[in-house]
Structures are given as structure tokens and as C-alpha cells.
Design brief:
It contains 7 helices and 2 strands, in the order αβαβααααα. With 171 residues, it is mainly α.
């Protein structure tokens, strides 16, 4: 049976985890190794077969990289394209960027995300899971608060300029 009260509690808990500083468990994924000796070590349980993915608050360097990835998103179609072709091109262009955005947000380090993470995102996550994950990463960026604070500071600065008395000197 589906319990709507329990579902709303889970959604509320996800939002609290996202806003708070706690790391959030995302999913346990299978690692696919490319090299044969890595596969052998995995078979012998020396290398892990699975990896748990967690989402944490991004470091400032990660925020900078994530915002750089969002700038490259394509949101408009070319004027000569038909509606369907324009939409197809937007989707085709943005899917790798969104996968890269999610991988950088999960990796949360200055280095590039590992290949196994890209492979897991492309092959072990559903579209709904990727959508939810991208919203959680974007929420953790807290871009709206940043721009709100910046706008407020600008208003205070403008107010400060208008409140300063004019100094009149002898002319």
C-alpha cells in the first residue's frame, strides 16, 4: 500500500538533508573495471565490486566548476531548425553536460570524476533518479540565496550612498 503521509515525510527529510550539512546516501552502484587485471582483483575481492555514492555539500571550488558547467547548457534552438529538430538538438547537447554536472557534484573534488562514476550514471540510474539528483545538487549550490544576498548588499550600498550628506566647501 502507498502511504502518502510517509511519502511526504520522505520528501521533507530529503529537503532537510539537502539544506543541512549532512551527507546523503544516493545509491549503491556496481563498478565495471576496464582492465582485465582490475577485473581479476575485483573477482578476488581485493578491489571493491560495488561503491556507495553519497552527496555532500559542495566545496567552493566545486561550486565554481558546477556553475561553469551550467553556463554551457543550451536552451534555445537554431532559427533554421524545425521545432522537433531544435528540441532534439537541445536534448542531445545537454545530456552529456548534465551527466558531467552530476558527476562533478557527486565527486566534489578538484580532480576529474572517475570513469566508473560516469559509467554508473549513464547505465545504472534511471531518468527520474538523474533528475532528482540534479535538483539536489543544484539546491546544494544555493544559487538563489547567493544572488539574493548580492542584490540585498547592492541595495544597502545604494542606500548608504544616498544617506551620506553632501559636503559643501567654500567655493
Amino acid at each position: 500500500m502507498f502511504d502518502s503521509n510517509n511519502s511526504s515525510n520522505l520528501v521533507g527529510q530529503e529537503i532537510v538533508d539537502t539544506i543541512s550539512d549532512r551527507k546523503q546516501f544516493v545509491k549503491k552502484v556496481r563498478i565495471n573495471y576496464a582492465k582485465k587485471w582490475h577485473k581479476l582483483l575485483s573477482f578476488l575481492f581485493i578491489l571493491p565490486r560495488f561503491k556507495k555514492i553519497y552527496l555532500t555539500d559542495p566545496f567552493p571550488g566545486t561550486v565554481y566548476r558546477l556553475l561553469g558547467a551550467l553556463i554551457d547548457l543550451r536552451t534555445t534552438k537554431d532559427p533554421q531548425d524545425t521545432e522537433e529538430l531544435g528540441l532534439y538538438k537541445i536534448i542531445q547537447t545537454n545530456i552529456p553536460l548534465l551527466i558531467n554536472f552530476i558527476a562533478m557534484g557527486l565527486h566534489n573534488k578538484s580532480s576529474e570524476p572517475p570513469r566508473w562514476l560516469y559509467h554508473a550514471l549513464n547505465n545504472q540510474f534511471s531518468a527520474k533518479e538523474l533528475e532528482s539528483l540534479s535538483f539536489d545538487i543544484y539546491r546544494r549550490l544555493d544559487v538563489e540565496t547567493f544572488f539574493g544576498i548580492t542584490a540585498s548588499l547592492r541595495k544597502v550600498q545604494d542606500l548608504n550612498l544616498s544617506l551620506e550628506p553632501e559636503v559643501r566647501g567654500d567655493s
